[in-house]
Every structure is written in C-alpha cells, then in structure tokens.
Specification:
4 copies of one chain form a homotetramer. The first copy, chain A, has 225 residues and is of the alpha/beta class. The first copy, chain A, contains 10 helices and 8 strands. In chain A, α4 links the parallel β4 and β5. The first copy, chain A, is globular and about 45 Å long.
Chain lengths: 225, 225, 225, 225
Amino acid sequence: MEITQKPLVILNFKTYIESTGLKALYLAKISEQVFKETGVNMAVAAQGADLFRISQEVQIPVLAQHVDPVDVGGHTGSAILECMKDAGASGTLINHSERRMELADIDNVIKKTTMADMTSVVCTNNVETSAAAATLQPDFVAIEPPELIGSGIPVSQAEPEIVEGTVAAIKDINPKVRVLCGAGISTGEDMKAALDLGTEGVLLASGIILASDPKNALLDLVSKI
Amino acid sequence: MEITQKPLVILNFKTYIESTGLKALYLAKISEQVFKETGVNMAVAAQGADLFRISQEVQIPVLAQHVDPVDVGGHTGSAILECMKDAGASGTLINHSERRMELADIDNVIKKTTMADMTSVVCTNNVETSAAAATLQPDFVAIEPPELIGSGIPVSQAEPEIVEGTVAAIKDINPKVRVLCGAGISTGEDMKAALDLGTEGVLLASGIILASDPKNALLDLVSKI
Amino acid sequence: MEITQKPLVILNFKTYIESTGLKALYLAKISEQVFKETGVNMAVAAQGADLFRISQEVQIPVLAQHVDPVDVGGHTGSAILECMKDAGASGTLINHSERRMELADIDNVIKKTTMADMTSVVCTNNVETSAAAATLQPDFVAIEPPELIGSGIPVSQAEPEIVEGTVAAIKDINPKVRVLCGAGISTGEDMKAALDLGTEGVLLASGIILASDPKNALLDLVSKI
Amino acid sequence: MEITQKPLVILNFKTYIESTGLKALYLAKISEQVFKETGVNMAVAAQGADLFRISQEVQIPVLAQHVDPVDVGGHTGSAILECMKDAGASGTLINHSERRMELADIDNVIKKTTMADMTSVVCTNNVETSAAAATLQPDFVAIEPPELIGSGIPVSQAEPEIVEGTVAAIKDINPKVRVLCGAGISTGEDMKAALDLGTEGVLLASGIILASDPKNALLDLVSKI
C-alpha cells in the first residue's frame, strides 16, 4: 500500500481508549470509507498490537507509531521493524513528540525503513529540527509544535510562519522530502490553511478521534481541498 | 487463559527473526502441542505486533513482553496494557533485563496488571532485587542473572545458590509469589535442577527458539519433571 | 562527615537558580549556621558541579542528588560515585522522583554507596515502593508522594496514613532503615507532624530555597522539635 | 576562555579513574603546559564534579561533557548549563556516543549554549548525522564512528572517506561549523592525517589518558602539525 496521492491525511491513533482494539479497527474502516468517498489519500498510525488486525481489514496504508532502533535478536519488549512489517505496517512515524528519539537512532530507523521499502514520517518540533531531519532523507517530515498538540489551536493558523519556514528549510535541503503539518488541526479550514502554506498534508489525532462523530469530522477535514 | 498448573514453562520469543510473525505463530503452535502431549503448562511471550495473530490461534496463555507504564491517552508509540489485553494477552513480562524499568513503574504496571485480571511476571537480576520485587506482589518473579542470559550455561547449575537464595528471600516476604528461573536453561536436566531448587518453572528463550528442532528441544526440556 | 544525630533535615537544592553556584554556597552556609545554632542535624544535596566548592567551605554533610549506575571507564557525561566522593560528597540521593532509576540500578548504586562508606537516601513514591526499597538496605528511605512535591501541602498532614504506612512497612522489613518524609514540608508544624508519625527527619526543597528569608524558614522548620 | 586558535585538541576525560578528581586536575595542568610549550590550542572536557576545581587552576578552556536539556527549576539530579557555567565551564560536548541525546534536545542545548556565549561541540557518528547536526548551527561537530572509539585504530587512517565526507557535508550546509574528528586518535601521524582531511582538530580520550606518560603522548600528538 503505497502513499502516492496527495494531499495526505495521517490519522494518529495514539493510545486513546477511543482508538484501541476494536475501536481502532472501526476508525480505520471509517478512514477507508472517507478515502473511497472523497479520493483523499488517508492513512492511519495504529498501536503495535492493533496493526495486524487492522491491516487485514482495510485497504488504506497502516503505519506503526514508533519503531525501536534495534535489529532482530535478544531485545525483549522492543518493537522491531521486521515484526511491524510482517503485521502489515507499510511505514512508521518516527520521533513523535510523545516518543522522541536520539539523533543517531532517527538516522538508523529511517535507513531501516527505506531498506524495507516502507514509508518514513519523521516528526519534528520546529524549523531547525525539521531541517536536520530533512538531511536524513525520510519520505515525510511532519512539523508539530509541541505546545499546540492536542490544543485545538491549529498550527496552520496560529503559527503559519513556522509551517512556511519549515517548508522552505526542508525544500532547500532536499526537495524530495514531503512536508506535513500537525498539532491542533481538526477542520477543513485548518487543512486548507496547511496546504496553502505549502505542505502536502496533515498529521492529526484528537481532533478526529475524540470527535462526537469521527466520520463527519474527517469529511469536514477534507472538504476544502 | 489462566496460568494455574505447575510447573510452568514460559517461552520468551524476544525479537529473534526465528520467532517473529509467522514463525512466532509456528512456535506458539508447537508450544501448544507440547502442552497437549505432556500436560506441562506452557505459555509464550510474544512481540506486541504478534499478540493478536497468535492469541487467535492457540489455547495456551500468550503474554506480552513489556507494557509501558502509561495510561490511555496521548502516548504515541507506547504499548499500553489495554491494547495488549484487547489483542489477547493474558499477562506480561515486566522489567526483563533487556527492558529494565524504573522501580515506581514496576509497581505501577503490576497494579495495572492485577486490576486487569492479568498475570504479572517480574524479571529480576539477583537475590536483592527479587526480594524487592516480591514486596510489590506480582504473580511471578523470574530470576535471571544477566551474565548467564543467552550463555547456554544454566543458572540452575552454575549459580544454584542464587536460585535458592531467591526462593528463600521471596517466600520470606510473600509466600504467594511464585518463583521462576531463567538464563541459560535449555535441557531437561536444567529444568529439573531449577525445580529441585524450589522454583515452580522456567523462563527461557534462545535455548529453544534457536534450536535446530524446537519441538524436540521443548519435549526434552519437560522430560525430567 | 557522618549523618548520625537525629532528627535530620536534608535540604535538596534541586536545580533552582536560587540554589546554583554561589547561591548554593550561601544556602549551605546558612544550613551550617542553623546546625550550629540549634544542634539539629542538617545536610544539603547539591548539584554535581557545586559539590567541590560547597564541601570545601562547610562542615555539614554535602550529598549528591544523583549518581549514575556506572563504574569508572568510558562513560562520557556520567556522574560517577568516585568523582562525587572525591569532590566531597558524603552520600547521595537515589531515585528522586525527578530522576527515577531502574530497580536494578537502585540496587547497584546502594551497594556502591555502602562500599564507599557513604550515605544512601532512596526516595520513593508510596508505601509499596518504600517497602521494596527497604529490602535493598539503604541508610534512609525518603517517602515523597509525587503529587505533593512543590505543592506546599505537607505530606505529614495531607496524607499521614502514607507516612505511617511507610514507616510500618519499612520497619517490618528492615528496622535499621531510617525513614524520612518529604513533599510539601516547609514549617515547624509540618516537621513536628512528620516526626510524630515515626519518621526521623525530612527532605525538602522549595519551601526553604524559594522562601523570602531562607534562614528564618529553616529556623522555623526546626523550632517545634 | 575562547576557543579561537587552530588546530584544536579536546581531551575528553570521560569517567576513567585516571582522569577523576586530583588526577583530572593533573591532566588539565599537563594540557595547559603543552599549550604553553607548543602553542597548540588545548581544551579539556571534565566530569561535572571536577569542573570547578580544574577551571580555578588552569588557563585553557574547560568544557563539560554533557548538559541536560532542562531549564533551572525542579530537576533534581540534572546537570544544568547555568551551574556548569558558574563552575567555570566555557562550553560543552553534546550528544557524545556514550551519552546520546534526542534530536530536539540537541537543538535545545545548542541554543542554550549559544545564548550563554559558550562553545558547543556536537558529537556525531556518521556523515548523515553530521550533516543533520550542522543544520543546528553548533560551533563544532566532532565525527566519531562508534566502532572505532577506544579501539586505537585512528578514524583518520581507517575510514578517511568518512572524515572527508563529513567535512564536505558540513561545509555544504554551514561553512562556519568547524569539524573535529575523534575515535582511535593518539599519535602525531593520526592528528596530521585528520588535519590533512580537512578537519580543524581532534577529540580524543583513552589514547592520552591511559598512556604511560600522558604529557609525552600529548607532545607527540601535536608534533606533526
């Protein structure tokens, strides 16, 4: 399941109870419906233990939320790329603000992901770390100012200069890296603003997952594209 | 799936390629066969992304290898108990030497596991930390001197005084806590020695997983009980 | 510089700017004055880079706030016990809630501290982890419910049952371990309540360090003993 | 104490017993002598608890080995920049391979170091992470392939293409960033090779610290410049 169309919406399930187990499967199916109904490229980032169940049931890309920077072997309790891929993951978030990674490990996991022909989405917190991430040649960089995550205040409207600065800094280093933005995104206006600033999509979570009607929230999100 | 019979054998899949994905499922089925053929209580500890697939297919307990000490919510990339349980885990290893945890987090995860009616298996490295773990009231403490893990030198024969000391220290603090031993265990002799020293079972990995014939290795393991 | 008298007051300098560098030296001198004026046993826990300067200038015990669980060798950036001792530390806090440690490392550092003839003060967050810590035979266990740290609400008055339960649990396991309590302590009433509950002293920080007149605050703290 | 001359030699004391306490002071004095005798710019990176004592006694730059990415406040056990500077540090190593840091924290500490008018030396493990580090605008990047650290095999001779590639990648991103190389460096030949490859100095440790005669080892190191 490649991620080729644009714009792209990645729905990060985090570890909300509303997006765990069967509820995660339900949200993945809704995301697939929105893809089929609107043609907008949708992907979900699920908890490790939910990857297999979801990837068996939907036709949109299913990403892991994190991969540990270790190889196969004696690493009890680690989440390795090989197991994630076998469970159906077609890519992974890397360095999410809730799971920051060491610089050398980000480099390592991007390389492993690329070698496995999977999609890498590196999350960053500002213009400077976005530029640093871009030198490592991931598929995507997703800029998410930590202070706006879960705030309901969309980064694309509250701090447009960070989004624009990130797009410029990344394209200057490596034009092939695609830029997403996250943090506070939930409406069609937020997403339109994100695209107008030069991004190719959004990474979001609570604005959809905790909505009273997630499908309608997703439909609204992609309505202004 | 309760863990009631004894002795108990827990096969830790770690992150070996030989125990990932379909190969993990195969090893789980072998373990189930050994249980059915010999009546010896078998359990497997699988990678997070393999839990669902395995638990759907076998009738023996499937444990997680690690649970992160966080509650449901915004914790991208964490392995939460709720998701593990939903995926079919009936318990979890805690504080394995390859995934050591903070003291406060061990306490937290044991409590969460107990509240969820799941089995807790705390791994420890010596007599002192085994006693400390016993005060936290887990179901099992598994003593594994780190220097013997993966060595092929069975702790039950190389350092019997550590196993005996651990059993004594734990029973002195809380007689309800059951003691396993690990590190270097692979043969029927090793397991018999472990039981003779007062343990109620073993936790093992490479001795079986990397064996040329894992099923025969398991049958040999339980042959002297 | 041994810690023998009782009760004991340990003033944790944390990393407040008010207790860094020359200001840390000033607070240490105030603490020494209070010891000389009142006879109450005072100790300070200073930042690593302040240990040498302070220990050269005061006659009360100076503790480290943390020691990394590594031996001498190639560990760039680690704070090793040998260097702390050479700089004048006569003991160390271990596992403070702002610097939680793995169980195996707590055991390791207590042993290293004891071998070096230094004082170990293990911080814990509840009755259960206090009992666990006591099995490891530190000199002191300091119980500090995290939710009260820096709150100004004294644990000795807000949650007396936790303090009493901790004293009982620890003495049951090892009567030689001495119990301190912390979190929210700042006044003479708070300290008297702590001692009345069976503790042998207090561990405190912001209540004194951020006071408008730290010396008077310390004098008030020890006024009801 | 600014670091302006070139080439530069940074002697990392790590946590060897041979470079702890009074022995660290002795090595710092030797380094100062070599600076005075040869004019080659020398600096030392000392353990936190040794910074004050050393900086009081020598006239060459004294760096910290690591700074925690936290501000002043309630962070017991952390090594904050403010305290390091007050103790005499004029800069710090960042992200040493023995103390890897998260990407966002490297960015944070470089900014704090720059704001404090101190020198930042970011350690990296390969060409890719060196380029990433250069985007964050540190004063120096020190490339040290981890497999060669402490090996006695000089990176400047064993893997010259990594050193050259790093110099090229860094200068392409930010010509103002100065490049050091480390790992296995100990002789004058090693250092000459490093400079010939375009670096402006070396970061080294065991080759000097564990030498039978550290001063002669240092004099040999700088003899071919």
